Amino acid sequence: MIQVKSTLSDQRGETPFVAVEPCEPAQFRVLLVYPNLPLMLVPPLSIAIFTGILKDNGYQLSLFETTAYLEEDATVSPENRVKLAHAREFDYERDLGVTVRTTDVYSDFRAAVLEFQPHVMIFSVVEDAFRQCIGLLKAVADLDIPHIVGGVFPTAAPDRCISVDEVKMIGIGEGEDTISLFCESIRQGQPVTGIPGTWVKVNGQLVKNPKGALVDIALQHPDFSLFDSRRFYRPMGGRIFRTVPIETYRGCPYKCTYCNSPMRVDQAIAGDQGNFLRRKPIPCVRNEIAALIERLNPEFLYFIDDSFLARPKSEIFAFCDMYEEFKIPFWFNTRPENCRLPEMQRLKEVGAYRISFGIECGNEEYRKKVLLRQVTNKQIIDSFSVIEESKIPFALNLIIGFPGETRALVMDTVELVRSIGGYDSLTVSIFTPYHGTRLRDVAVRNGWLDDSIITEHTTASSLLRMPAPYLSQQEIDGLMRVLPLYCYFPKADWAEIECAEREGAEGDAILLKFMDIYRREFLGENQEQKLRTVIASGTGCRASIKDSYFLSPLRLTEEQFMTLIP
């Protein structure tokens, strides 16, 4: 058991935490905890960054993560993607070497804590995993271990997080400096109540500290050594790669209302921290890649930037010239309107293996007024002509079930997808009202969402309860079953596909029939094979370019739009 030696007190004699006696850094034990959705792949960069920082401080480190745990009735997003034909089939154990754990995660966590006996615990959590985070804290609450809970969710909803009895301290915003100050305060027996960017409970009172300065992301040296080697394998385009994530810039220049990245920019401005959007110098990126290669020998790099090509043209070419040294296959996410042929061809030359593009919604008016994405359908379609010409395989990401969305709006999205040539896969998500997004506020304001709800991940059922003419939860679930089929098959099949939206013997049989064809014809090859055998028109579906959806009709009244404006 962890032995309580003394208390940590602030200047008023209050006791926010109990801890062992002050000790040397080499004797100080830190447990990093990563609650995660079941079997969500690729190690988190945040934990790797924290590991590098804390190792530099000379501490003993251990990691407990929940990725491999599969609790009863758990929804597994990667498996759902395969089931819904958003991704090619793979097997966790055979292809990735991942053994699923069915033991009680909370008992295992308590056992790990008792064995390691940490002086402090550091949690990094997103909203989808917050319930699990609470469960982990409850499992060791009687041990009174100093802890801090940080990540996207505490940053977006600090009041909600700190209101949980088991949560004693949260970190808001970037954690690199916060975790060092927190650990050193505990190690030296000093107060933790004045650390910038933290809220801490003290004798029934809440101490709120303003955020400190933004960190210099160029100083990072991520360390993935705490992760099991099998955690790096993931499917990509029909193949399995040893994959490592990397960040070249932090923040996003766009204001999409379904995303909580704009929240970070707004918070930095409100807190007089400056510009949250920061890019690493290309030489810094080069050194980080070289270090990752030396330590991990990755087969694939996964750039986690919000929109990789949202940077000056000269910097894209500078990146490519630098990356010529490595030519390791890589993935990134970006927006189609940022793609120009010379840059795309150069990216292909140096190893761009796959790109993901967020299309989200096919109705131009809704996209502009509600999602704040100021791009026309024609610009999107024209951009994909360039992207297809570059011969870089790509996936399209869609969202359905937005606040105020109707069936007609969803079918506009289908029509836009059918106008895009050459896509390799189609990923559909249900709108998730994350804290910190403007569309969550819209849903709450209209009475379609209980503000107390904590979200689930993007392949679960919709959390919104919207009246007609807007989509119901059941209608959204039905469209989720078949949306790739509408995009792929000719319109002559649509009436039959619509029957497959409904669960039951008839609908399930029709769904199985079309899914078998879709998986065989569209997902049957990996992306490289598919690129070599793509049909003459180069289209990812059976639509004709002559039917391109350049102009989408008006779907909502001005009065309806007024209720949806963020």
Structure notes:
The protein has 566 residues and is α/β, with parallel strands linked by helices. It folds into two domains: 6-217, Rossmann fold (3-Layer(aba) Sandwich); 237-564, TIM Barrel, CATH 3.20.20.70. 36% of the residues lie in helices and 15% in strands. It has 21 helices and 18 strands. The protein has helices spanning 45-56, 77-83, 92-96, 105-116, 130-139, 152-156, 158-162, 176-187, 261-270, 282-296, 313-323, 341-350, 364-369, 377-390, 407-417, 438-445, 473-488, 494-499, 505-521, 527-533, 558-564; strands spanning 6-8, 17-19, 29-34, 60-65, 120-124, 147-150, 169-171, 198-202, 205-208, 233-236, 239-246, 249-250, 278-279, 300-303, 330-334, 352-360, 394-400, 425-430. The strands form five sheets. It has a seven-stranded mixed beta sheet with strand order 10-11-14-15-16-17-18. Strand 5 (120-124), helix 5 and strand 6 (147-150) form a beta-alpha-beta unit. The longest helix has 17 residues, at 505-521. The radius of gyration is 24 Å and the shape is globular.
Describe the SSE topology.
Blueprint: E1 6-8, E2 17-19, E3 29-34, H1 45-56, E4 60-65, H2 77-83, H3 92-96, H4 105-116, E5 120-124, H5 130-139, E6 147-150, H6 152-156, H7 158-162, E7 169-171, H8 176-187, E8 198-202, E9 205-208, E10 233-236, E11 239-246, E12 249-250, H9 261-270, E13 278-279, H10 282-296, E14 300-303, H11 313-323, E15 330-334, H12 341-350, E16 352-360, H13 364-369, H14 377-390, E17 394-400, H15 407-417, E18 425-430, H16 438-445, H17 473-488, H18 494-499, H19 505-521, H20 527-533, H21 558-564
Parallel strand pairs: 3-4, 3-5, 5-6, 11-14, 14-15, 15-16, 16-17, 17-18
Antiparallel strand pairs: 1-2, 7-8, 8-9, 10-11, 12-13
